[in-house]
Amino acid sequence: MTPPPPLLAPSPGPWVVGVSGGADSVALLRLVLQFRPDITPIVAHFDHLTRAGQSTRDAEFVRDLVTRLSTSATYRGHSREGSSTTEAGLRKERFQFFARVVRETNSQGVLLAHHADDRAETVLLRLVRGGEPWAIDGLRERSIIHHTPVHRPLLAVRKQLLVDYLATIRQPFVFDQSNDTHASARNVARVLIRDTPGLFEKLLDLANAAANLRQRLQKAIVQRGNLATKIIADATPISARWTIRRWLALGAVEVEHSQVAIILSMCVDASAPRVLQVSPRVRVIRKRGELILLTGA
Asked: Domains in the chain: how many in total?
């Protein structure tokens, strides 16, 4: 298997590699070792202490794998008593652990093994939950989570290719039996995509279109500088708030939720105040159908 193009993206140096023991993350680690000798992988494994002891088995597998491959130090974390057991809670706890390992090792960021199938599942779940058009593109190759750079170099690769690669190099991995059940919404999405011809391709087409829409909107905001109130007035409340925050972020301005609501009202209600004093040095002014951001004394 030749390295997928995104694998060439991460810059040389130390990177924390999240390894669960499953096929995806084991393949990522082996690919980095095989094709990127200029990257020093620092393996990080987080044990959620779930699945009736199976997660502990996974941790032992990762420890033995690192020993056999003679890679850099392994960092192991585990859930605290009373921690959230929801998918979102587990993910937050895991990312906080990865961010801490990055800081402790002075690494450049985290490499994660999400692949194209994961992206399609995420798009479908966001559609079901009512995601906004430009927010449903799912996982991204590069992002910042907990102030930590995150790269997903396998996002364009199908899972089966990763499994085939491991078979070629005779590399075992652990299998999470819960993935074959309907225990979570993601598992249901996975089965639906697998059993519906053409659904995977359509979801990725939609994801790419949503990403393009988001990028075009951000570019338009950057080019204009000011923000047309009509863009906000015509958007749904969720989309409008997201656009306002993105516009302000381009000026390095952070606002409270209540201030976003005031700015939104400035766009949809002609009787609303024309000026918002965000902070002692920052004001938002409505003038001739545009919002203008003024900073300074």
From this structure: 2
The answer to whether residues 149 and 156 touch, using CB atoms and an 8 Å cutoff, is no
Same domain (yes/no): 235, 154: no
Give the sheet arrangement for strand 148-151, strand by strand: 74-78, 39-47, 13-18, 110-111, 148-151, 142-145
Beta bridge partners of 285: 275, 292
DSSP characters over 112-146: ----HHHHHHHHHHHHHTT--GGG-S---SEEEET
Q: Which CATH number is 110's domain given?
A: 3.40.50.620
Segment 81-125, tens digit of pLDDT: 555 667 777 888 889 999 999 999 999 999 999 999 999 999 999
Phi, psi of 158 (to 5 degrees): -70, 145
pLDDT band at 287 (very low <50, low <70, confident <90, very high): very high
The whole-angstrom separation of Cα 284 and Cα 267 is 11
Do 233 and 91 share a structural domain?
A: no
> What b/e readout covers 215-238, taking b as 16+ CB neighbours within 10 angstroms?
eebbeebeeeeebebebbeebeee
Contact status, residue 119 vs residue 139, Cβ threshold 8 Å: yes
Same domain, 90 and 154: yes
- Residue 76: which domain range? 5-195
